[in-house]
């Protein structure tokens, strides 16, 4: 008996990933550095002044990390309970943070003990921020109130009680020192002016609001809550411009790059999406190992830091153009392994070959023993990563060549036939496999037509296959109609051109 020849699996060309400028730019961030914190990272904030250190709030501590340091250069731990939302002032000299006990603490970056403590909230303060005049602080808490504090006198300037649920996010206007925005779990976003006693604008987001962010111009507001990211025009009275739904779970944080041309959103679905602020389309996506609670970009977009629910801090640094990584050479050079590969034997040389044992796949072993039905089961029931559809189709082609395809498809029970029909439904409309699978579908219908109606599962699968093929036929007919229209257009264009050339000749 001649040696068995394994089944040849045809390789099909794969569509490459569309490479854009954004893809190249965002993929230019180096392999991440991971730092373990004491608890879930609820806030990351970069200092606005060089060397651009960043404050990380997790558990009952605030760590200040250097941009390229994996160890904290400073720690603030004077909290009795969980700390929240440590935020830098515009000059990078002061840091403010909220806490679970309802107090707001102000720290000097060069010291350790709090400079000021603002007491007035009755529940946890999740939101703190400096107004752009640098001398006032705004805070929002779980007692449904937002307050404005004076730094110099440690006194409360204003208090707003318009929200009806927890206040969990805020942002300030850099153009107007009196404006700030708060977002709440009552599904609303409110714009406040410290010169008035009530909010000047209310926006209905539709879901509990987790994050808000103002564009540098101050005219556009971005809100995140539920699975939605929404952009509003403040200058038009809070008109909704666009609603984005690209995440599968709750969006927890927002961030703009230094130019304001890219918007980043982090979610509990472990993804960070990058949007273009001109088209509001996703231009890139990052995948992480755990749900994301916070993210921040360094000034000039040199560093991307992401905080997760499992306490991991993920830090990525962007490579500069022209930067080369010098890798240490390990082991022998490549030429050592290919030495003698192109050697041509002389007439007096004796060639000694080492026998190589070919290990057959499971389906090849079954085909070698003429167990055709089991060979087909082996490729249908194996995981897709182990046996992609190309392998299954190749085995079907081999069975058809041998004339045993009908025998392999016959005599199947309900479970085996269900698996086979599921494979056909998934791949029969694929242009690469259609010629083979349509033939298989015709054989299955011929074999199992007498038993239709005995199993509701198989009947449902046959109906699915029928609907799928009918839709595909409709698509093909529509495409043929379009091709006919295009042929007619091209025909009229080719007729007009020679006529125009003849007119030019007569004129000459």
UniProtKB/TrEMBL annotation:
One of its GO terms (cellular component) is nucleolus. Pfam families: UTP15_C (PF09384), WD40 (PF00400). It is found in: Nucleus, Nucleolus. The keyword rRNA processing applies. Keywords: Nucleus, Repeat, rRNA processing, WD repeat. Residues 342-489 form the U3 small nucleolar RNA-associated protein 15 C-terminal domain. Its main location: nucleus. One of its GO terms (biological process) is rRNA processing. WD repeats lie at residues 76-117, 118-159, 160-202, 244-285. Gene3D superfamilies: YVTN repeat-like/Quinoprotein amine dehydrogenase. Part of the small subunit (SSU) processome, composed of more than 70 proteins and the RNA chaperone small nucleolar RNA (snoRNA) U3. May be a component of the proposed t-UTP subcomplex of the ribosomal small subunit (SSU) processome. Ribosome biogenesis factor. Involved in nucleolar processing of pre-18S ribosomal RNA. Required for optimal pre-ribosomal RNA transcription by RNA polymerase I. Part of the small subunit (SSU) processome, first precursor of the small eukaryotic ribosomal subunit. During the assembly of the SSU processome in the nucleolus, many ribosome biogenesis factors, an RNA chaperone and ribosomal proteins associate with the nascent pre-rRNA and work in concert to generate RNA folding, modifications, rearrangements and cleavage as well as targeted degradation of pre-ribosomal RNA by the RNA exosome. This is U3 small nucleolar RNA-associated protein 15 homolog. It comes from Varanus komodoensis.
């Amino acid at each position: 008996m001649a040696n068995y020849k394994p089944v040849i699996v045809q390789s099909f060309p794969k569509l490459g990933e569309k490479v854009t400028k954004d893809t190249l730019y965002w993929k230019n961030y180096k392999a991440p550095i991971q730092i373990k914190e004491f608890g879930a990272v609820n806030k990351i904030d970069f200092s606005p002044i060089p060397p651009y250190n960043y404050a990380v709030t997790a558990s009952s501590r605030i760590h200040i990390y250097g941009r390229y340091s994996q160890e904290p250069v400073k720690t603030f731990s004077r909290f009795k309970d969980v700390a929240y939302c440590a935020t830098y002032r515009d000059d990078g000299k002061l840091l403010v943070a909220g806490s679970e006990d309802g107090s707001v603490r102000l720290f000097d970056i060069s010291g350790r003990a709090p400079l000021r403590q603002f007491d007035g909230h009755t529940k946890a303060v999740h939101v703190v921020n400096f107004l752009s005049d640098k001398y006032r602080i705004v805070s929002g808490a779980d007692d449904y109130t937002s307050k404005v504090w004076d730094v110099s006198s440690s006194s409360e300037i204003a208090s707003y009680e318009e929200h009806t649920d927890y206040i969990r996010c805020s942002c300030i206007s850099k153009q107007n020192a009196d404006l700030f925005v708060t977002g709440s779990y009552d599904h609303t976003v409110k714009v406040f002016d410290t010169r008035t006693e009530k909010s000047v604008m209310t926006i209905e987001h539709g879901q509990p609001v987790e994050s808000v962010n103002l564009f540098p111009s101050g005219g556009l507001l971005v809100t995140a809550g539920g699975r939605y990211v929404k952009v509003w025009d403040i200058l038009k009275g809070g008109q909704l411009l666009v609603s984005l739904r690209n995440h599968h779970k709750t969006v927890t944080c927002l961030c703009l790059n230094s130019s304001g041309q890219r918007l980043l959103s982090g979610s509990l679905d472990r993804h960070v999406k990058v949007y273009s602020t001109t088209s509001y389309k996703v231009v890139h996506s990052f995948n992480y190992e755990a749900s994301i609670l916070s993210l921040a970009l360094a000034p000039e977009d040199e560093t991307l830091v992401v905080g997760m629910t499992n306490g991991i801090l993920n830090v990525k640094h962007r490579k500069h153009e022209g930067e080369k990584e010098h890798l240490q050479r390990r082991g022998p050079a490549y030429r050592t392994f290919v030495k003698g590969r192109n050697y041509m034997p002389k007439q007096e040389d004796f060639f000694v070959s080492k026998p190589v044992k070919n290990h057959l796949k499971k389906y090849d072993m079954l085909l070698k023993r003429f167990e055709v039905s089991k060979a087909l089961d082996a490729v249908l029931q194996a995981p897709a990563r182990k046996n992609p559809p190309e392998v299954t189709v190749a085995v079907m082609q081999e069975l058809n060549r041998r004339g045993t395809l009908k025998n392999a498809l016959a005599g199947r029970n309900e479970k085996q036939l269900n698996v086979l029909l599921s494979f056909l439904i998934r791949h029969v409309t694929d242009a690469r496999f259609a010629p083979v699978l349509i033939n298989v579908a015709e054989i299955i219908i011929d074999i199992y037509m007498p038993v239709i109606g005995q199993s509701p599962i198989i009947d449902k699968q046959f109906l699915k296959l029928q609907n799928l093929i009918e839709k595909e036929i409709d698509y093909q007919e529509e495409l043929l109609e379009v091709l006919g229209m295009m042929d007619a257009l091209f025909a009229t264009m080719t007729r007009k051109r020679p006529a125009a050339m003849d007119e030019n000749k007569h004129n000459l």
